[in-house]
From TrEMBL:
Keywords assigned: Aspartyl esterase, Cell wall, Hydrolase, Secreted, Signal
Family affiliation: Belongs to the pectinesterase family.
Sequence ranges assigned to domain Pectinesterase catalytic in this UniProt record: 69-352
Organism: Microthlaspi erraticum
Pathway of action: Glycan metabolism; pectin degradation; 2-dehydro-3-deoxy-D-gluconate from pectin: step 1/5
GO biological process, one term: pectin catabolic process
Protein name per UniProt: pectinesterase
Keyword Hydrolase recorded: yes
Length: 362
């Protein structure tokens, strides 16, 4: 009897300690692009419909957010983004929504570790540009970004984030980041990232990008993030060797990777690669993505270390367009089936059901 009670108690502890798998964690993004918005609305509902399902800290933070208005011309609470961010206290527990009036903000902006729950947003349909000309030569590669975020639960919407440094000449190094995200649980809606080499450092944590535009030349999305890019345009510029994704995964134990779903690859010229093995175990997949002729027929850049051929995870699933022809792809392109691809097509990939919310209204 004692043994039976012990086993029963253990079973109960396991049951209640196990995370509850919610429907939106396992419902895949539909293959039909016309159904994506309905999928998003069904799986990423507003706070009012999600109480009791979100992380309690997020529910508390999102209730009664503080609004801060920034306008360089005056009439707002502040004239610069940095002034507004300085008002976010260390250990912040309430959402702070920083609304930017349309215009150009020439600032190098950093949201610190201790400043979670910050939203920076522009007005939908207006030009709101955050610009700076930082370079690796002056700041170091990852510190060159126009906008750097270390904090968790960051949101950006309706922004153009731009590094205005000139394009490096083909064959030369010229890292100059538009954005670096190092915080967990970050979401981007209708944002545009402009740069050349290393435009977006998608470095650490779970991230979600929707209806965005990312432009660059070499490794223009790089880092260690576990990120879902939905309905995002990846635009190649420049000449010479050009690569979209350089994922920094170093072992099979790391739960990260980039998933590009219903995206669109465009650009100038031809020969851009979908990704390369910056480290030994990169994980990058493209699903339902439209690929123009700018994509190199081999798809993925050759691995300098041939041993990486066995450890990379390069997947393509039901993509379309002239650049999606897999006839000449490198041998280590992974054939993934519907069952395998589904892990990349759900909010569960970024643990999104506990934190992801729709963009706030301006």
């Amino acid at each position: 009897m004692i043994g039976y009670i012990s086993l029963y108690t253990i079973a109960l502890l396991v049951l209640f300690a196990s995370p509850v798998v919610q429907a939106d964690d396992v419902t895949p993004i539909p293959a039909d692009k016309a159904q994506v918005e309905a999928w998003f609305k069904a799986n990423v509902g507003p706070l009012s419909a999600r109480k009791g399902t979100l992380d309690p800290a997020i529910e508390a933070a999102e209730t009664d957010p503080r609004i801060v208005n920034v306008n360089p011309a005056g009439g707002g609470d502040f004239k610069t983004i940095n002034e507004a961010i300085k008002t976010v206290p260390t250990g912040n527990t309430k959402r702070v929504i920083i609304k930017l009036a349309p215009g150009v903000y020439r600032e190098k902006v950093t949201v610190l570790h201790g400043q979670p729950f910050v939203t920076i947003m522009g007005k939908p349909g207006a030009e709101t540009n955050i610009t700076y000309d930082g370079t690796a030569a002056k700041y170091g590669t990852v510190e060159s970004a126009t906008l750097i975020v270390w904090a968790t639960n960051f949101v950006a919407a309706n922004l153009n984030i731009i590094n205005t440094s000139p394009m490096p000449k083909p064959g030369t190094q010229g890292q100059a980041l538009a954005h670096r995200i190092n915080g967990d649980k970050a979401a981007y809606y209708n944002c545009r990232f402009h740069g050349f080499q290393d435009t977006l450092c998608d470095d650490r944590g779970n991230h979600f990008f929707k209806n965005c535009f990312i432009e660059g030349t070499y490794d223009f999305i790089f880092g260690r993030g576990a990120s879902l890019y939905l309905n995002t345009q990846l635009h190649a510029v420049g000449e010479g060797l050009r690569v979209i994704a350089a994922h920094h995964r170093q072992s099979d134990k790391e739960q990260n990777g980039y998933a590009f779903v219903h995206c669109k690859i465009t650009g100038l010229g031809s020969g851009i690669y979908l990704g390369r093995s910056w480290m030994s175990h990169p994980k990058v997949i493209y699903a339902y993505t439209e690929m123009s002729s700018v994509v190199n027929p081999s798809g993925w850049a050759d691995n300098k270390d041939r041993a990486h051929d066995k450890t990379v995870f390069y997947g393509e699933y039901e993509c379309r367009g002239p650049g999606s022809n897999k006839e000449k792809r490198v041998d280590h392109t992974k054939e993934i089936d519907k069952k395998e691809v589904n892990q990349f097509l759900t909010l569960g990939y970024i643990k999104g059901s506990s934190w992801l919310l729709p963009p706030p209204a301006f």
